[in-house]
Design brief:
The protein has a single domain, classed as 3-Layer(aba) Sandwich (Rossmann fold). It is about 45% helix and about 20% strand. The protein binds adenosine-5'-triphosphate and magnesium ion (MG).
């Protein structure tokens, strides 16, 4: 079975792409060669006839991959919608076969695959097929990226409950400051509450970064992600 992590989130825009980059750097730091995928990306840019997957390109760059972007992101959709709706609006089909083929090919070359999901676990890809199904089919444990403040406990627990129903392993949760800290009571008490009630560990609290350059992400990842807990799930 290929090793790796499926990076999901409690919502869209919580920082999955940046945290996937951080996990790539953490894995590299352990001495392992990491490859990345963002198998389905909606809201892609367009240059002439070509769709540009921004998340896929960022991950390819963070992992220093020399593979074609079509392997990193085999399914590009232009409409900024959930995949099922974006495919309909773009008048195209999402090929799960193509995603699997790309994943298998990259898995042969890289020791650890870091795969970014789309939105959260219950985002529909096709009729009766959700992101949680894609994570299950790729056979990877989850890392759940979540906001640090008020409301996040509910979103985290719902995500974990959904993962458990599908029989998925959750390697851990990363609380990511995608906005400057509010110093709110929720931000201050959530890590302790999660340690008490949450069945999965918090493997990192990632600070807000003004500079999102590769070196800054790498340095912060090594310092703020629990490498031992990550290694246990590989
Ligand atoms: N730790 C951080 N510090 C500063 N900015 C951040 C941080 N994490 C995320 N951001 C910013 O927040 C925004 C959303 O992050 P990101 O694109 O990684 O989210 P996402 O969950 O991958 O979104 P999508 O669902 O669209 O794939 C981006 O503008 C990103 O630069
Ligand atoms: Mg993203």
């Amino acid at each position: 079975m290929p090793k790796g992590f499926f990076i999901t989130g409690t919502d869209t825009g919580v920082g999955k792409t940046i945290m996937a980059g951080a996990v790539i750097k953490a894995v590299n730091y352990m001495g392992l060669k990491a490859g990345a995928m963002k198998p389905i990306e909606s809201g892609c840019g367009r240059e002439g006839d070509v769709l540009i997957p921004f998340d896929g390109m960022f991950l390819k760059q963070m992992a220093h991959m020399d593979d074609p972007i079509t392997l990193v992101t085999p399914c590009c959709l232009e409409s900024p919608l959930a995949p099922i709706s974006a495919a309909e609006a773009d008048m195209t089909e999402i090929s799960l076969y193509e995603i699997r083929r790309s994943f298998d090919k990259l898995s042969e070359k890289y020791e650890v695959m870091i795969v970014e999901g789309v939105g959260g676990l219950m985002v529909p890809i096709k009729r009766d097929y959700y992101v949680v199904g894609l994570a299950r089919d790729l056979g990877l444990p989850l890392i759940v990226v979540a906001r640090p403040g008020l409301g996040t406990i509910n979103h985290i627990m719902l995500t974990l409950s959904c993962a458990r129903k599908e029989g998925l392993t959750v390697a851990g949760i990363i609380l990511n400051y995608s906005a400057p800290p509010e110093q709110s009571p929720a931000e201050q008490t959530n890590p302790k509450l999660l340690a008490q009630i949450c069945p999965a560990p918090v493997i990192g609290i990632f600070p807000y970064l003004k500079n999102m350059g590769e070196e800054a992400v790498e340095r912060t990842a090594i310092k703020n992600i629990d490498l031992e807990l990550l290694r246990k799930c590989l």
